[in-house]
Amino acid sequence: MIMSSGFCSARNWLGFVFLLLTICSLLSPAAAVKRENFKTCDQSGFCKRNRAYADTVAASSSWTSPYRLERGTIKFGDGILTGAVYKKLSGSEENIKLPLTITFYESGTARVSIDEEKRQKGQIELRHDSKARKERYNEAEKWAIVGGTSLSTGAAINKESAKGTTLVVYGPGSKFEAIITHNPFGIEFKRDGETQIKFNDRGLLNVEHWRRKVDKPPVESSTSSSEDSSDGGKASETPAAAEADKDAGEDESTWWEESFGGNTDGKARGPEAMALDIDFPGYEHVYGIAEHAGPLSLKETRGGQDKYSDPYRLYNSDVFEYEMDSPMTLYGAIPFMQAQKKDSTVGVFWLNAAETWIDITKATSIVNPLSLGVLGKTTTQTHWISEAGLLDVFVFLGPTPQDVIGAYADLTGYTALPQQFAIAYHQCRWNYVTDTDVRDVDRKFDKHHIPYDVIWLDIEYTDGKKYFTWDPLTFGDPAGMLKQLDEHGRKLVAIIDPHIKNEGGYNVVDEMKSKDLAVKNKDGSIYEGWCWPGSSHWVDCFSPAARKWWASLFQYAKFKGSSTNLHIWNDMNEPSVFNGPETTMPKDNLHYGNWEHRDVHNIYGHSLINATYEGLLARDKAEEKRNVRPFILTRSFYSGSQRYAAMWTGDNLAEWSHLEASIPMTLSMGISGYPFAGADVGGFFGNPDKELLTRWYQAGIFYPFFRAHAHIDTRRREPYLAGEPYTEIIAKAIRLRYSLLPAWYTAFHEASVTGAPIIRPNYYVFPGDEKGFAIDDQLYVGNTGLLAKPVTKADTKHATIYLADKEKYYDYFDFWTYEGPGEVHLNAPLDTIPLLMQGGHIIPRRDRPRRSSGLMKFDPFTLVIVLGHAGDAEGTLYLDDGESFDYNEGGFLHRKFSYRSATASLTSEDLGSPGKKTKEYLKQMERVRVEKIIVVGAPAAWKNLKEVGITEEESNGQSAAGAVRNAPLEFHAPVEGRAAFAVVRNPAVRIGAGWKINFA
Ligand code: NOJ
């Protein structure tokens, strides 16, 4: 199996045993994640120290946090409060000064930042010969924050603050309060007079201040039970901490260096972690802090049974074959958390790019001692611990999930509206081996009438893993291949990774070196590590010059053989380094500006896709005068990456448990402001049996990013290979996705302007229904009322769906009627997808099967009117050319459809705001009509109705002329639990125009 892989073939044999072992172990499907490659909290010095700090605090009955806000330093003006927090060192009179800034934004978001006063000359020295910067990393915001920072004009200090506190009133309608306690320092955030969030209430604020490293006699290390705890021994060889007395009881063994897996991390600045407890009183559920493979409602991380033993970790890593139900880190980091209780959502965004751990515990109060154990409110307690950087936290006070997610998106940016093809079906594997292979797969999809839009090339297309090249033997005719795809309206995505092969004569590496654009070792020399090409260097996109250079590589003249229908996949950008600590880069590596890798680790991948995005934008603008939206897929991400790329959940396994986990994982991305997400359909490692593959497609059509992918050692599994009945069932599922593309595109548009998730969990849709707060195996598609419950277990014949509201829900396919609230049971044999339509919605679709979505551009629409108890329904449709930025100039249509039972009429109104390109676009769409209207739950009174009356506005946009034409209506009476429905054939109203259809 090993030798079958491309890399391990003789051609690539580098004679380097380490590389062979590492890479072949990555290539060969093994049973499980290599846990031992990744640190536990106990093996991560700063995490261990801060957990110990929390334990000490919890064990003490007289603990007082040593942080105090000096009253006399407080200043307030223009929405900003500043002051000095002092940390008192134990056993000493000395205080460390920590500048505090609390910013109140017009949006109602508050931001609390704590820095450390710049070191005075001689106050500390850096360890080693490191050229690292001396201050705390303060540039995360440059990468993550793009808006939402207008200062509040209304925020004001309330003069009647209680003694020892400062009270700031702020937010919409002045309903929010920040009560800042001076000594010990803490903040309580209230909404409508009720406490929502507390900072440092438990006293876990811990700013590991800089100190001088002073030799002292060796001390016994108490750190780490790991095999590497010998690093503590190392630290004690050149041991430290003249200031130990001031920090009595602290474990210093990992202050100055720390080893793991044979790598030693020299900490040039010594200990500098930032930690804080953030509590949500009355909130039982917390969500977010993606990416993890576990339930949507986050689990407790301390306290034994059914709880994790480690905190949730955010340290972007190449964790292939990752573990299910685990707080282990994965490929990306979004340090944004929401808390949910009945009818209230609040949240925090911890803006820090360094390794971060988050402990979650829940405390439930006893109502009163006489109530014999009757439980009261639950408080979710969280403890955030970052290795370096600032303490910089944004606070969102809701009250709805959308308020919180919207405020977060306002800051970090909205999901880029993708090209239409990007939300259709993607066919990938590692690898399509030749250009003829690609053409052949392309033809076979057509032969089997299975739509697809994009075929992907993994690393083997390159000439010896040199990105921006093609293997001359296997991909001798990229232009011909791309042309064939283009003729079918299809695209190609090619992989480009950030590791650049270290081989003389390869122009990319030569340029990168000569221009000095690569990541460096701590001494300033170029960093070299191992990845797919063998010895490699890594582009440092933190450097503006490197970004510009990287962007230039995508020009057609430079990436020879590429063309307008080629798009990009940035993989391995955590970055993955096969021989690095925890499969990534040493933390003491240096980036542009001499920031250490530890400072910026979680935004490395984000910096790369930013440059790729700029490259693709420029490529098309400059060379083709095209104004098209780039498509990029990224594995690593940070808050803000939604502005540039889709993401996927990395190297999963072809196992039912991974299919199951993909739903909460994708939902979690959606509520984390990064909704363009999906998992490898079929499972990356291993060979799914046909039932699993089929069910995975049926689930995959509900991922916003819908791509099948497979490891190089797996058997081919394009849908047409499955054989009957599987192929037809899979094809039907894919066709369903295509038919619903208008609804999906509308949901993407909404995400791109409001930050709303594309697939939505119950708590988001029904924030007042506590029963739904932990549900994460069913999903709503945008605002369409479509409710899916993908089957994720073998041998399933039935599905149970939870309905939160007192409403009618209809089976999508046969209109079987269900009634909420409560659980309903559906038949779900292999050829059936459990999918319901909630009463009250109008769903736009296109029902003509095509080879690719591009070919559907001028297809007519079907509108499905789903009548609920009230008898009314509404829906929207957003449409544009699906590829350019013309929508920014009005080149789109946005309609609202409403059915009103009182008037028995269906109307289409304009939601758009006209711009320079509106007319031109509407002209293009002039011939696109509604070909069918289906009314589900049609009133019994329609049984004698034979036609509907239609009035439509003039094509010049003038209001309806009044001329009425008719279209036939067929009424279908209810049968056996199925709803009555009516079909209006060919009403022929224009999709982009205003009209009214009378059903009476
Ligand atoms: C790791 C990615 O997660 C996987 O999808 C890809 O196939 C391999 N790298 C090879 O490029």
UniProtKB/TrEMBL annotation:
GO terms of biological process kind = carbohydrate metabolic process; N-glycan processing
What species is given as this protein's source? Dissoconium aciculare CBS 342.82
Enzymatic class: hydrolase
PANTHER family (UniProt xref):
ALPHA-GLUCOSIDASE, BCDNA.GH04962
Protein name, UniProt field: alpha-glucosidase
Annotated Glycoside hydrolase family 31 TIM barrel domain ranges read 416-747
Tell me where in this chain the DUF5110 domain is found. Answer: 863-907
Return the InterPro entries for the record.
DUF5110 (IPR033403), Gal_mutarotase_sf_dom (IPR011013), GH (IPR017853), Glyco_hydro_31_C (IPR048395), Glyco_hydro_31_N_dom (IPR025887), Glyco_hydro_31_TIM (IPR000322), Glyco_hydro_b (IPR013780)
Q: Which residues form a coiled coil?
A: none
